[in-house]
Specification:
Oligomer: single chain
Largest sheet: 7 strands, mixed
Number of helices: 15
Number of domains: 2
CATH class of the largest domain: Alpha Beta
Structural class: alpha/beta
CATH superfamily of the largest domain: Type I PLP-dependent aspartate aminotransferase-like (Major domain)
CATH topology of the largest domain: Aspartate Aminotransferase, domain 2
Shape: globular
Bound molecules: pyridoxal-5'-phosphate
Length: 407
């Protein structure tokens, strides 16, 4: 595809309007929205309002006057059409790691007598660490099997199956409906991590029979660095599950100041402490970037962008890089990885040329496509620049080999 052909596609893109909703620096092709979503154009002004008017002028009255107390559910409700859930099944809270701990602990408590937490090898590290810690604490065992053996490993001893829906390295997608059905047939619960799914591809949490899920606020949801996470609890389970971190914000009457804990009915029992209001204000802006956007269009454009990128990279750099994501677009979410023995240095050379992706050990160059603001022209240009860097060995310089703290 030529750059002109790509620009033609951009001109007829049904999501072209959404690009204006972001503030991106000139001269940068940003292919890392799967790690840190771009800054929405309205965030700075709305944070200023939250700080100066709400916090500054209205002070503590803002909990009522500006409805701060309801923000964790009000803002979460905006996720409902993105993930295929009811608004009342969603909550914004804590971080993904903490939310995962809370839901896994609630799930295993609801399956007494079963001693296994089942997951896949090479799951995202925090997911493995959280599950290991919980298993150790409760005298359970964490069983991690290869991704394609998870379904066969579910048995009568499995309390909970926990998986990242979209693999953070390869973008391979688990069959959510099939895993839920297999888990339920054995009497187990499921906890999904949607960090690389929510806002990237179509999801139907209710329709596929999900029990519990968590996801990240700062990737495709554009909530800003360290944005709070979200929690999904299917309605049928909400009052059955006991929140493991019993904080006052999950109490039925927090302002009665009772000595005894009594969880509120519904999703709010998964709140623990005072929500981070400024962070919620930023996440609210991030979710507003999806206003009027159909996830079907997002998913279709994600496929188009990633297919174009794969074709253009392979045409230019064929022998030098190896596609390490599924080739079938139906099996892949919204990012693509290519392996190269000097992947870290090549990525640093790309960043120096204004093409921002990231690197995942041992040798993966990861490129994220965020259909709200990535254009076909960006993708073609990025492939051209990668081709030039490989052809000229521009990556082969000491400063590009030096590992930084964050890759
Ligand atoms: C990004 C990511 C997280 C992030 O967890 P934090 O607690 O927000 O640091 C968790 N799980 C997966 C699969 C991720 O991709």
């Amino acid at each position: 595809m030529t750059l002109d052909e790509a620009k033609q596609l951009d001109a007829t893109d049904p999501l072209a309007f959404a690009c204006e909703r972001f503030s991106l620096p000139d001269g940068v092709i940003y292919l890392d929205g799967n790690s840190l979503g771009a800054l929405p154009a309205v965030t700075a002004a709305r944070l200023r309002e939250a700080v100066e008017q709400q916090w500054g002028a209205d002070l503590i009255a803002s909990w009522n006057a500006h409805g701060w107390i309801d923000w964790p559910t009000r803002i979460a409700a905006k996720l409902a059409p993105l993930v295929g859930a009811k608004p009342s099944e969603l909550l914004i809270a804590d971080s993904t790691s903490v939310c995962l701990f809370k839901l896994l602990a609630a799930a295993v408590r609801a399956r007494p007598g079963r001693t296994t937490i089942l997951t896949q090898q090479q799951n995202f590290p925090t997911d493995l660490y959280v599950a290991q810690g919980l298993a150790d604490m409760l005298g359970m065992k964490l069983k991690a099997v290869p991704a394609d053996e998870v379904m066969g490993a579910i048995d009568e001893d499995t309390a909970v199956v926990t998986l990242t829906h979209v693999d953070y390295r390869s973008a391979a997608i688990h069959d959510m409906a099939a895993v839920n059905a297999a888990a339920h047939a054995a009497g187990a619960l499921t906890v999904w991590d949607l960090s690389h799914s929510a806002g990237a591809i179509e999801l139907d949490l209710d329709g596929t029979g999900c029990d519990l899920a968590v996801g990240c606020g700062y990737k495709y949801l554009n909530g800003g660095p360290g944005a709070p996470a979200f929690v999904y609890v299917a309605e049928r389970l909400q009052d059955e599950l006991q929140p493991p971190l019993q904080g006052w914000f999950g109490h039925a009457e927090p302002f009665d100041f009772d000595d005894d804990y009594r969880p509120v009915s519904g999703i709010r029992r998964f709140l623990t402490g005072t929500p981070s209001i400024l962070a919620l204000a930023a996440l609210d802006c991030g979710l507003d970037t999806f206003d009027g956007v159909a996830m079907r269009d997002v998913a279709a454009k994600a496929r188009g962008l990633s297919q174009t990128f794969i074709a253009e990279v392979e045409a230019r750099c064929g022998g030098e890089v190896r596609l390490a994501s599924p080739r079938d677009p139906a099996s892949r979410a919204s990012h693509v990885v290519f392996a190269h023995a000097q992947g870290y240095a090549v990525m640093q050379a790309l960043i120096a040329r204004g093409v921002i992706g990231d690197f995942r050990a041992p040798d993966l160059m990861r490129f994220g496509f965020t259909p709200l603001y990535t254009r076909f022209a960006d993708v073609v240009r990025a492939a051209e620049i990668l081709g030039e860097i490989l052809a000229t060995r521009a990556w082969d310089r000491p400063e590009f080999r030096e590992r930084k703290a964050v890759t």
